[in-house]
Amino acid sequence: MRALFVFLLFSFCTCLQPLAAQDAARTDTAWTYSGGIGLDLGGLGIINPRVGGGTGRFGLGGLGTFSANRKGANSFWNNQIGLQLSLQRQSRTSLSQPEGFQKNLDVLRLTSTYGYKIGSDKWFVSADLLAQTQLLKTYKSNYLKPVTLDGNPDIVVSKFLAPALVQFSPGVTYKPNGHLAFQYSPVAVRFIYVSDDSLALLDIHGNDVTRDASGLITDYKNYFLGLGSELVSRYENKYFNNRLSVNSTLRLFSNYLENPSSVDVLFANNFSIQLFKGLSLDLLGELFYDEDVKMNLDANENGIYGDTGDRQAPATQLTGAFLIKYSKIF
Hints:
single chain; mainly beta
């Protein structure tokens, strides 16, 4: 499956290369490369803590992005790969408390968009690729290694390429100005793959699972294939003498083949406040909803997700983070 994942990305780039070569022959083009690294690092160590004085903790993670964008007289090609990763470990306060790192965030995402001008400078025939997975294996306890909670054995619920999402959307792009873009695809293909059979049987990652009247699983597939329409809007701008940068992307996907009235949503926002040259405070906010992907719901309302009595069901996931980031254009 890893070979298939790489092959899909390679095929996408290969298909676009003839158009890129044609445009390069007409005019000089320029690639712009940039990268940013934000570090989420915090630690607190206490020896002989006072009663009621808390406990030690260590957190590690951050955000890494790399962009390669090409703009010609008749085309554009924007590419970005990003990783959001955050872990934490707390000092033990009892023998029953598990030991090890817990996962806070783990998203590996690649986006690539190519557009070729048709008619005026505002309209382009285009193609968009979105690929997403995660890096680290995670257990039901949210630890990176199995632990025992309430006498129940731990199980793996996700890992690299389980699940993996690949979405390809050919269509048209409208750019009314240099900050805003709308892309619409009437034939977008959405592919979810779960590389591990035991994880596919969990029926939490969006792959096709068949149940009988009593709710028991009678059949399953490691994948989900959807064909539908997608609308992508992007907004980029800078304010206050370039000290505040705003980057926002909204993706809306409707599957023709199953329940087209339900719309999958991915709304990602990044607000970057410049502190010094190359150094910024970044605020990230993301909203995600997919009717086929299950979330942990705090059904007993005790503030613990995945506790006994909680349930898993489709729901809107909200993610927020802030961190110091160093960016470089080269």
